[in-house]
Amino acid sequence: MADVAREAGLPEPDVDRYFTDRDDLVRGIAENILELVTDFFEGVLKEEPIPPLGEVVERFADTVIAISDADGPGRLAPIYWASALYNEQMADRARAPIHRGRAGWTEIVERERAAGRVPAGADPGAVGSLLVCLLPGIVLQRVLFGDVDPETFRRGVRDLLRSVAEGPGAGA
Q1: Would you call the peptide bond into 73 cis, given omega within 30 degrees of 0 as the criterion?
Q2: Residue 154 and residue 158: Cα distance in Å, rounded?
């Protein structure tokens, strides 16, 4: 914790007062990040009409990148996810926010499908389960490579939806 206090420019007793150990600190940061993500979905789902999926993905990427840059707390999210693999308390705390994220993506896809912007035969639950993977994917790519940007994700979704709409073998 002394290293954390030094890096943050805070007296060690102040850090110790709020966090009992490294896991507690990581958990606090991760829960804050997951709350930001939950707020993101609540905001998007209040919009009428719902924005196109590519725009939502781009805005989501903006949100995740903003907290994953240089000294952003998002850089610690992978530590939290890894800890959840062996620490049942962290896993329990991670499940609800991740479930909320998956439910948020699923509802967005349902509304996109109703608006005719996602194929009628698409399974919103399956697509939502796939899109929830954007959070760790964006964070890891941003931290490891630093070369991803929100527009890249918008183009990826646009191109994927276009290829689905055109059908197998189109453009080959």
Answers
A1: no
A2: 6
Q: Which of 64, 66, 135, 56 is nearest to 102 (CA)?
A: 135
- 9-23, 69-83, 149-163: least confidently modelled range: 9-23
Show the tokens assigned to 117: 């912007």
CATH of span 27-165: 1.10.357.10
Q: Confirm if 51 and 142 have CB atoms less than 8 A apart.
A: no
Q: Above pLDDT 70, what percent of the chain?
A: 84
The span from the first CA to the last CA of the chain, in angstroms, equals 56
Give the residue extent of every domain in the chain: 27-165
Mean pLDDT of 118-147: 90
Gap between the Cα atoms of 137 and 151, Å rounded:
15
Cis peptide before 49 (omega within 30 of 0): yes
Closest CA to 154 of 74, 60, 63: 60
Which helix or strand (DSSP H or E) is residue 92 part of?
Answer: helix 88-114
